[in-house]
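From the methods appendix. Each design record in this collection lists the tokenized structure first, followed by the designed amino acid sequence. Records were kept in a plain field format so they could be parsed without special tools. The example shown here is representative of the layout used throughout.

RECORD:
FOLD TOKENS (650 positions):
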């Protein structure tokens, strides 16, 4: 039997307003009565206004909601106008209409009434995607929320939960989902075989009802592993024709298929390099196979040498994505989207924005974020990432374009999902804010992080002011706190190897992954200026100049870009070493404060949420202290410099 699960922000409660008249839904031009927009409206209104008598089409009803499709709107755009007597939602397509309906429902719930609204909205980013790292056996790579709800024992599961998931995603505007892990090689099951097409078709059709395209991660060497060919060379006609035939077979069998997601030549995954070909050769070969079906290839730029010798100070993993892809700008077919991680390393708590967002002016790009909190507390720590994602989207690349923010350079964003089969979907209830916020941010990035999180808190916990204020305070301060008690000033890593939870300053120092802090008794950080690895030169002026000197580099990225002595004075006026000590103490105090504030909500939030939260805040505090003591002791021993405040450094 399927385990119980929460409906999260779609768990509607009756509004606190008197409404007992008739309420009519009128489906005008092109709106099918059985489309998702209509069913969502019925579900919501019948719960929000239990006294209403719901009908279809009656002109005499006290309250009328009109729905129509308007071709003058962009396909996913909508207009919404409403007052005390009714509402009208027009969508550019059924998907746009659905988004407009969800917006209306959101307004009813957050405003707690039949409010006046007039707005025209269309999503900022055409592609708004979630990437699942779910394996066919039901495990999830970097999953902190239980098992997969897409797969069990090498079978695809389709259940009520799948429907609920599609509703949740559509309600925040997500329109694409890759269901299987990008580390696809070695998986016992290959989704590119006909045994799976029927289930994939059911899934694609289901997701499609909520405007979501289904994507599959594919193995670049599938012509060998699935097709039995001797090689997977993208320029080999036999390989090209194998993929063309495979695309024909799968696209004609599976409805709602959007395309393929590929991790190639990365961390052991096969790719075009094995045949002396480049990544444009690889991506375009697949893109041409998918083109007749309207399919897209989402090709990841997370390509680097993961067998580095730590003594080699010239090779810099941070440069790898740029060096691989920048020379290929303009060489990709128009149905290829390059998916670029938000920073050049790997979803650390603080990284500079990836320089590829500036230089790839003639290539479709999607930013890749990670909701799964691999390096940010694994959903045991509260770490709300929406402010950081927003900052990254707003970051200016100075690449000579009139509009030069990351947001202006991308046509999509994808995030590694943080969901699983836990009751609240994300292991920790507060981690749900990241799932919700990512979708809302991709749709309407002009909203502030505070607006988005506030909206989520209200939808999840109702209008209790004390609860809202405290949760908002915790969530908005959580990333800063996590950064303070873990890794200082953009240094990254320092976590325990493999599972990446908890502190170990030298855990990755002498390993092969290119992730070094190079701390010694005199100094710490990596010189990535032209005098060092040259990474800072991959940015346009003035960024390259700003990043290349400790005098101008922003403090929060100082150790990412510069190697400085412990006595270096930061812009705050503190020495580097004192900053490290202080921030670890401060971050811990914040974690303590969060736990105290959350405990004060007992009785104001439901008992299960309270229990789940307390358990996690307790662990967060324990782990924050561990980080504080281990990192402070590490730098104290190396530098030999005492804390100005005489605190014990362990
Ligand atoms: C799916 C990091 C993670 C891996 C992940 C990889 C990626 O290295 O630790 O689990 O693999 O990123 O993004 O491909």
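DESIGN:
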């Amino acid at each position: 039997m399927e385990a119980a699960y929460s409906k999260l922000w779609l768990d509607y409660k009756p509004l606190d307003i008197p409404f007992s008249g008739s309420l009519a839904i009128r489906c005008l031009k092109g709106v099918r009565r059985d489309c998702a927009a209509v069913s969502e409206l019925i579900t919501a209104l019948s719960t929000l206004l239990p006294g209403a008598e719901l009908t279809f089409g009656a002109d005499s009803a006290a309250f009328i909601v009109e729905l129509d499709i308007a071709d003058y709107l962009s396909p996913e755009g909508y207009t919404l106008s409403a007052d005390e007597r009714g509402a009208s939602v027009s969508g550019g397509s059924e998907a746009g209409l659905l988004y407009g309906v969800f917006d209306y429902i959101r307004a009813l719930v957050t405003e707690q009434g039949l409010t006046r609204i007039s707005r025209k909205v269309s999503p900022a980013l055409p592609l708004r995607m979630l990437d699942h790292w779910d394996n066919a056996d039901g495990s999830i790579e970097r999953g902190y929320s239980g098992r997969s709800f897409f797969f069990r024992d090498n079978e695809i599961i389709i259940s009520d939960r799948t429907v609920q998931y599609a509703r949740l995603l559509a309600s925040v505007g997500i329109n694409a989902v890759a269901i299987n892990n990008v580390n696809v090689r070695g998986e016992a099951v290959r989704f590119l075989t006909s045994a799976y097409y029927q289930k994939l078709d059911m899934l694609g059709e289901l997701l499609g009802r909520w405007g979501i395209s289904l994507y599959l991660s594919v193995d670049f060497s599938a012509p060998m592993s699935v097709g039995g060919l001797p090689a997977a060379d993208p320029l080999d006609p036999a390989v090209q024709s194998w993929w063309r035939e495979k695309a024909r077979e799968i696209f004609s069998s599976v409805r709602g298929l959007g395309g393929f997601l590929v991790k190639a030549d990365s961390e052991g995954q096969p790719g075009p390099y094995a045949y002396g070909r480049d990544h444009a050769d690889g991506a375009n070969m697949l893109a041409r196979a998918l083109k007749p079906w309207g399919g897209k290839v989402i090709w990841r730029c997370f390509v680097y040498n993961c067998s580095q010798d730590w003594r080699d100070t010239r090779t810099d993993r941070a440069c790898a994505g740029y060096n691989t892809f920048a020379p290929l700008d303009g060489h990709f077919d128009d149905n290829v989207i390059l998916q670029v991680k938000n920073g050049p390393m790997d979803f650390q708590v603080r990284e500079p924005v990836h320089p590829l967002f500036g230089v790839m002016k003639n290539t479709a790009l999607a930013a890749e974020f990670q909701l799964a909190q691999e390096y940010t507390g694994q959903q045991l720590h509260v770490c709300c990432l929406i402010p950081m994602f927003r900052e990254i989207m707003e970051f200016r690349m100075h690449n000579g374009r009139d509009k030069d923010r990351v947001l202006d350079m991308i046509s999509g964003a994808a995030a590694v999902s943080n969901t699983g089969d836990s009751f609240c979907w994300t292991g920790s209830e507060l981690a749900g804010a990241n799932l919700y916020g990512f979708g809302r941010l991709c749709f309407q990035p002009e909203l502030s992080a505070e607006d988005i999180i506030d909206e989520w808190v209200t939808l999840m916990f109702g209008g209790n002011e004390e609860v809202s204020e405290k949760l908002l305070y915790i969530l908005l301060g959580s990333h800063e706190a996590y950064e303070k008690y873990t890794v200082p000033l953009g240094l990254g890593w320092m976590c325990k190897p493999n599972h990446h939870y908890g502190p170990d300053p030298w855990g990755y120092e002498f390993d092969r992954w290119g992730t070094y802090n190079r701390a010694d008794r005199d100094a710490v950080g990596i010189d990535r200026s032209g005098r060092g690895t040259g990474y800072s030169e991959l940015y346009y002026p003035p960024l390259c100049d700003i990043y290349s000197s400790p005098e101008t580099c922003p403090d929060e990225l100082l150790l990412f870009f510069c190697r400085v002595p412990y006595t270096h004075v930061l812009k705050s006026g503190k020495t580097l070493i004192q900053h490290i000590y202080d921030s670890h103490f401060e971050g811990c105090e914040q974690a303590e404060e969060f736990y105290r504030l959350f405990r004060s909500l007992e009785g104001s939030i439901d008992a299960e949420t309270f229990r789940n939260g307390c358990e996690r805040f307790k662990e967060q505090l324990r782990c924050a202290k561990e980080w504080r003591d281990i990192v402070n002791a590490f730098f104290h021993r190396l530098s030999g410099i005492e804390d100005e405040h005489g605190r014990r450094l362990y």
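APPENDIX NOTE: The domain at 127-253+334-448 is CATH 3.20.20.80 (TIM Barrel).
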